[in-house]
Specification:
This protein is an alpha+beta fold. The protein has 2 domains: 147 residues, BirA Bifunctional Protein, domain 2 (2-Layer Sandwich); 112 residues, no CATH class. The chain is 51% helix and 10% strand. It contains 11 helices and 6 strands. Helix 1 crosses helix 9 and helix 8 packs across helix 11.
């Protein structure tokens, strides 16, 4: 029997990036009660130190009219070649049925009072790393959508397997059956990640939805439009994105003193790591074999965390490497 408790550092590392009580659309996944929370925390810590695959749940866009929705549904069905699945296993196939669905959702908006720029639907992608069983991702997405939207918002989804990462495109009608509009907050998105991860685990797939800070990741994920522009630039098909150009310019001229937000970020990461070290030592001193093994795993996890570097510092190092390589080539030419 172990005496695992939830240490303050662990709470700071794994707490959601926003306050979950602000979520309007879902409820927390973790069980209630101190004992249940401790068991859930221990299981989550075990998955974290094993580096369980992280789920991705991302809102990729909103459709603004019937035509836009039709084009989006054509895209996710590969122009009618893939099936769309809705609640209760409802299946749509072919461009004609997809067009009928788009018209139905558009007509619902015409009779409901709303802003002129109100979206018709939200586009959501549920994704897992390469190698994850496609059928289980599909089944978990089905359970995810039914759990969150079945009674309130019509939806359809399609599985894509033509990419390294198996992923599901989920399209949810913004106007709910009760007239409420779908407008998720950041807290909802975190709870959506946890819900999808739990659905995968229920189907035997190792999955987690930890915040970046728990994995030692400091910089924010690259936004999809910026990533696509950067990849085009790297292929030689487009100009350097303004966002990246500005970041490179800032990295080339480092500030005279560390910005306040970077100092706070560094302090928070350092505090999290110190507290996790304390927890690793406490677990290793336990009389329970399971606790000692977990403490050893946690120590190895901490030792492999990446250095605390901001995006500006990473870009500055990259620029220094490029300049160093140029200097070495120039010296080699002079020696010839």
């Amino acid at each position: 029997m172990n005496d695992f408790r939830i240490p303050s550092g662990f709470e700071e590392a794994l707490r959601p990036p926003v306050r979950t009580r602000r979520a309007r659309l879902t409820q927390a996944v973790l069980g209630a009660g101190a004992a249940g929370e401790a068991r859930a925390a221990r299981a989550r810590l075990q998955r974290m130190v094993r580096r369980a695959p992280e789920v991705m749940v991302k809102i990729t866009g909103r459709t603004r009219d019937g035509g836009h929705l039709q084009r989006h549904l054509d895209y996710i069905t590969r122009n009618g070649k893939l099936f769309l699945e809705g609640p209760d296993g409802e299946s749509l196939s072919g461009r004609a049925e997809v067009r009928t669905l788009a018209e139905d959702w558009r007509d619902e908006l015409l009779v409901a009072p709303q802003r002129r720029d109100a979206p018709v639907s939200l586009s959501i992608v549920l994704s897992m790393p390469a190698g994850t069983d496609e059928g289980r991702v599909h089944d978990a997405a089905r359970a995810f959508a039914a759990n969150l939207f079945a009674d309130r918002h019509p939806y359809v989804f399609a599985l894509h397997t033509d990419d390294r990462h198996p992923h599901v495109h989920l399209t949810v009608r913004a106007l709910g059956r009760d007239g409420e509009r779908l407008n998720p907050r950041k807290a909802d998105l975190q709870l959506w990640r946890e819900t999808f991860a739990a659905a995968l685990r229920d189907r035997g797939v190792e999955a987690e939805a930890t915040p970046r800070r728990a994995r030692g990741v400091v910089r924010k994920a690259e936004r999809t439009p910026v990533r696509k522009l950067r990849e085009r630039f790297e292929r030689g098909d487009g100009p350097l994105p303004k966002t990246l150009a500005g970041a490179l310019e800032s990295a080339a001229r480092p500030p005279s003193s560390e910005p306040v937000w970077e100092a706070r970020l560094r302090q928070r990461q350092s505090a999290i790591r110190r507290r996790l070290v304390v927890e690793a030592l406490r677990l290793q001193a336990s009389k329970a074999d399971g606790d000692r093994r977990l403490g050893q795993d946690l120590e190895r996890f901490i030792r492999t965390l990446p250095p605390i570097l901001t995006q500006r510092e990473i870009l500055a190092r990259a620029l220094a490497g490029v300049r160093g390589g140029a200097d070495r080539r120039r010296d080699q030419i002079r020696e010839r």
